[in-house]
Design a protein that fits this description.
This protein is mainly α and about 300 residues long. About 70% of the residues lie in helices and about 0% in strands. The radius of gyration is 19 Å and the shape is globular.
Length: about 300
């Protein structure tokens, strides 16, 4: 699978910071989604991925040659569209078939899976105990956050939903790590992946959902902000981070997203603070520090 039109490599530290930017944007997902009203999931995905694709393709007006990034071999397209659409389709299915808290917790195995899968990447320096400890502490932090809400109670009747959530975790982890293996594919290609995901989401929406449009300027603004940030710029930043940054460190840092999201909801008055949130913050910070130390100590391949 030889990608076409490679782009210059970004410094490793700058690329990792770009990945952190994606995590920060994903922490706004819950707030903007709540503000978007009753728009069904697949319809919302179609609308926001369309905005995200348009946002990423806007610079092509000044530099049309960048559109040649879409000329990639079919395995690259399968990876990109399979990652973006496949993950969201499975996650939305999980939310339909299982309680959101349990589905969300299972789905958040993907950062741990990224840490594990990244050990197979060339030049990764191998997987160190600190990376595993950091990922485990991060997962414990997310579990503490969900448990503190008193929402966890796994039921056997929701097994199909749990399976979909687990599959979503594997899909996103696989997409993130395999993106590093096609690091020469320019990030502009993600524009095409967003448009394809929007089209597939629209097809799913028409098949299983009733259309519900935003009812006022606030809800329309939330949809636009979703497309510009958590479902737009975040995927371009994540692509840069996974291809040219420290994927293991990004995997551990990703556990900060649900905690940051809860902190934002608290600040906006949509949630209340509590001991579980403080414990989750401590565990995730400890996990991140362990992973940072391990990455600094890892030999460069």
């Amino acid at each position: 699978m030889k990608p076409r039109h490679p782009c210059p490599a970004a410094p490793r530290s700058a690329a990792t910071l770009a990945g952190f930017g994606a995590i920060l944007l994903w922490s706004l997902l819950a707030l903007f989604t709540a503000a978007s009203g009753a728009v069904p999931p697949f319809q919302l995905a179609a609308m926001t991925f369309l905005v995200g694709g348009l946002c990423g393709g806007l610079p092509w007006i000044a530099r049309p040659a960048r559109a040649r990034a879409l000329l990639q071999p079919w395995p690259v397209w399968m990876l990109g569209v399979g990652g973006l659409f496949g993950y969201h389709a499975l996650y939305f299915s999980a939310l339909r078939l299982a309680p959101p808290a349990e589905a969300g917790l299972i789905n958040y195995l993907w950062p741990l899976l990224i840490v594990l899968f990244s050990a197979r990447l060339p030049g990764s320096g191998g997987l160190r105990p600190g990376h595993l400890a950091g990922a485990a502490l991060g997962l414990a932090g997310v579990a503490a956050l969900f448990a503190g809400r008193g929402e966890l109670g796994f039921a056997t009747g929701a097994l199909p939903g749990y399976a979909a959530a687990l599959a979503a975790a594997f899909v996103w982890a696989g997409y993130s790590v395999l993106s590093a293996r096609v690091g020469a594919v320019p990030t502009d290609a993600v524009v095409g992946f967003c448009f394809a995901t929007a089209a597939l989401s629209l097809a799913c929406h028409r098949a299983v959902e009733a259309t519900v449009w935003p009812v006022d300027a606030v809800q329309w603004s939330a949809v636009l902000l979703l497309g510009l940030g958590p479902v737009g710029a975040a995927f371009y930043l994540w692509d840069i981070g996974c291809k040219r940054g420290d994927v293991r460190l990004l995997g551990v840092a990703a556990y900060a997203a649900p905690v940051l999201s809860t902190l934002i909801l608290v600040a906006a008055g949509h949630a209340k603070p509590g001991p579980a949130l403080a414990l989750a913050c401590l565990l995730i910070v400890a996990g991140a520090l362990a992973a940072v130390r391990a990455s600094r100590a890892a030999p460069r391949g």
